[in-house]
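Dear Dr. V.,

Thank you for agreeing to look over these. As mentioned in my earlier message, I'm a first-year student in the group and I'm still getting used to reading structure tokens, so any feedback on how I've presented them would be very welcome. I ran two proteins. I've put each sequence directly above its structure. The first is here:
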Amino acid sequence: MTRHRSPKSDLPAMVLPPLRRDRHGRGLRTPLAPPESPLSRSRAQRFDDLVLESVERLDRRWKDELAKVEFAVEDVPVLDDWPHDWVPLARAFASTGALPARIVVFRRPLETRAKGEFRLRDLVSDVIAEQVGEMLGVDPQDVDPTYGHHG
């Protein structure tokens, strides 16, 4: 610690390093929720959990049919080869060569469409049922009996 003489008195003044604070002087921000709580997870991580929950629920019923189907989440769709003027919520791709069949769910369009966390859960479930139904050639209601019956 360095000591300097105060210009107004003969008493020594202490020079301290500046405190690191935010611009409003309220201190550094800390996380609002503990790291182990569900609130500490990002929106993307919570969305991934919703997709995984829906897929696991369908996998119990359609295990053999979904064994070689890969599920993925992307933030937004690439619309280069998309012939429509609307944004897809998900897409199903048939297997080609070494690539397995896959269903890609698009997070941002679904979050934009849903009004709240519970509606998002229902919408994700319905969209995955539609894509699995399209891939298997069956009605989404047959894939998931709760399809379209969310409150």
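The second protein is here, in the same arrangement:
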Amino acid sequence: MSTPVRLLLGACLSLSVVAGCGGPQTAAPAAAPAPRAQSAAPPKQAVPAGQLARADVDRVLMQGPPWILRRVPVEEVVRAGAFIGWKILALPADWSSIELKTGDVVTQVNGTTLERPDDLFAAYRALASASELKITYEREGAARELVVPIFGAPTKETVEAFASDSPPRRATTARPRGTTVIEEDDGGAPLEGSAP
């Protein structure tokens, strides 16, 4: 996996382990291999080195900005009363070969300064249709830029998911275990039939 892919995708792209159903199973006798049919679909193109796969970018986008923020703690950098950017306090160990390092100050993503939460979402949203990921940052006072092309055309589903001004909602299946729900009427008093 290339360095930029690790930056964006990290642990999200770990391999899944598929387990079979339990219980005793008997092996079927080996059959002669069937002749391979020619596939009508064109072969999938490999992502060129140094580029991000569109499918990987889409997968991360659908996780939402908190996915990145949980993995990369940052602190605000202000000089002479003006916002400069976000200092990277730590990076996951498996991202050790990326160009960004602890102490770097990210000033822009795809030309957007990330001063407010709305700015973060705007930059994140723009990646749904962007042809590259461009991170402008400072290291020891020197300005730098990381530019990584995104391989593949934007997908209709991801572009539509980010068409509104609010983040796409992830599907929820059920209330998490251990959740306590307290219901009250408009006056704040417990509802009838519930314990005081």
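From my reading of the second output: The longest helix spans residues 54-63. The two ends are 57 Å apart (CA to CA). Does that match how you would interpret it?

Kind regards,
E.
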